[in-house]
User: Fold this.
Amino acid sequence: MSAGLEVADIFRRHGDAYRRSHDGHLGRVERRVMSAIELCRTAELGGHVEACSACGLVRCAYNSCRNRHCPKCQGAARAEWLEARQAELLPVPYFHVVFTLPAPVAEIAFQNKERVYAILFRTAAETLRAIAADPKHLGAELGLVAVLHTWGQNLHHHPHVHCVVPGGGPSLDGSRWVACRPGFFLPIRVLSRLFRRLFLDALRTAFEAGDLGFFGDLASLARPAAFTRRLCELRRVDWVIYAKPPFGGPAQVLAYLGRYTHRVAISNARLVDMTDTDVAFRWKDYRHHGKAKTMTLGADEFIRRFLLHALPDGFHRIRHYGFLANGHRAAKLVLCRKLLDVPPEAPSRGAATDGPVTPRPLERCPCCGGTMITLGTLPRPEPRHPPFWCDSS
Assistant:
């Protein structure tokens, strides 16, 4: 297989067989993800014709599907999101904290994605904010950006939340800025125990409200006694929270966020080869110090693992909390900058929008560097089937 292999190529070659063999178990969201990726930047979505004003090169530029699971569609979304975040960065150290669900909880999460992922977000944020507000630890209001990832390098289901947190915040009375100790954020063991308690309490509440469903190997957990036993077992397990050293400055934070916020389960760059039966891709084995390896899976298994990470419609995988919460972020950032004695930032030009799906034309010709000019549009063909691709979720 030549260079430039894409997930779309795998779906186009093996997707129909996968749909047939999993017809009774493939959900609407998963079908739409597959269709969107297959059709992305093809004539099926329409586009435009552009030409170079210098050398006369003419090319077709087809529209993107804009599905958030598509590896090709994240670059522009990431750039817009980061431009909007740039004015929100403060001149303080930033920390990266990761909250990971144990495997027995991840099983429950997979069968109850929307409910349990929301609990993961909420309790991770509550944990950080509660410990930070305690005068024994910091005595300040925190702000954080949280990003959900549900995959590991081998594409297995591995739900965890990455939190990027400024190293300090306004005091609880808003009178001064309280900074973390240099190189130290909050005590990990204390965070881990509170996170475990808050999460399991919220999980029990969801169970008692009838918000959780169980099937297959987990069907027995629908019985209250079995569910209670599972919770008791999980209270005896250490829950993993990882905190990295602080970043060097706001520019590094922005670069880091760019790598994490708009990731999908696997990028096209990691794909190595595809045959009539298999798919090979690069991965890092963190159990062996991040050693680079190549994994080969049957095409059916590769597609299954990729689709494990399809999110429910409308589910937000990037969330803001504390003084970065959407409702009062602007006013809180004004206060933070006042307490830090730094000038206010100008508003960002680039908030995310629901603009046209046509990709931005190339500013320069790939052949001679001349300016590319749009000549006209390429309409979509009349749909022959329900347009699964049109929903960008």
